[in-house]
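Re: weekly structure request thread

Next one in the queue (323 aa):
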Amino acid sequence: MKDVKSISTKKSNVQNVPGTHKSKYSKNYLKNNWQLYVMILPAVIFFLVFHYLPMYGIQIAFKDYRAVDGIAGSPWAGFKHFTTFFNAYYFKRLLVNTLVLNVENLIFSFPVPIIMAIMLNQIRNDKIKQGIQTSIYVPYFISTVVLAGMLYIFLSPTSGILNTVRGWFGQNAVDYMSSASAFRPIYIISSIWQNAGYSTILFIAALAGVDQSLYEAAEIDGASIWQKIRYIDIPSLLPTIMMVLVLDCGKLLNSNTEKALVMQTAGNIPTSDIIGVYVYNVGLGSGQFSYTAAIGLFINIINFILIITVNRISKKTTEVGLF
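Done, posted below.
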């Protein structure tokens, strides 16, 4: 009896060893679900190769990088390139132009996909709904260069549609693409036209997950369309809205450089001269890789601070956040 008791106590002691069950469970879980890990392996490799390994090159922001010496062989420069950028006479203009453009773009473009998703959700005819969705998705697949070409054609002072209409009313033609005051409205309106339809996919998916019994109960209670939108659709979309808003606020210093570059003319430089365009011109045009790397690192740090701040505010006000 004593031997049996001693054996049982030993087994119980082994079972109670911290981490024993956990290690066995994890090994069995890995063995039984290895297919899932193989499936996500390409995505993990992609992020490692294209997102984490390139972080080794961040150090050139603190060096006087020379291609001949390589990253490791280039001499250290400390915060020299950061100081040069902060003390430059164009620093304030670049920062203000970038912030104003992105904040205005966020204010005017962010609500549009939400409104469109709510409107599409009210359409009960599937064929009409699918037709509208297809038509509003198409602009997203137009390349930025083609979009800029369309803008130059439509807004041409000689043959543009808008100036042709102005001529019918006896008004003089305006070269909108060379106007500094017109650059931001054109940029924002064209961005809404190109991206709003595609951005509705996320919100439509969120509305598709709403329990239909809520709508049925609301109809029985005599709720109107606006009441169903207010008390069912918007609360259901709120978590998705806040997550998208947090992510968008984390990109307030990242503009569509390609679009701003192809839209830039000699006349609209006072407003189209943003950080992304400046980095492109200086980095590739002048070969100042360390200097532009320092600017890019500064932008990413500010964006990181913004996304952390907005996420905290979101969690305190709506109890919804990314982390």
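The mean pLDDT is 87. The first helix runs from residue 2 to 15.
Next request, please.
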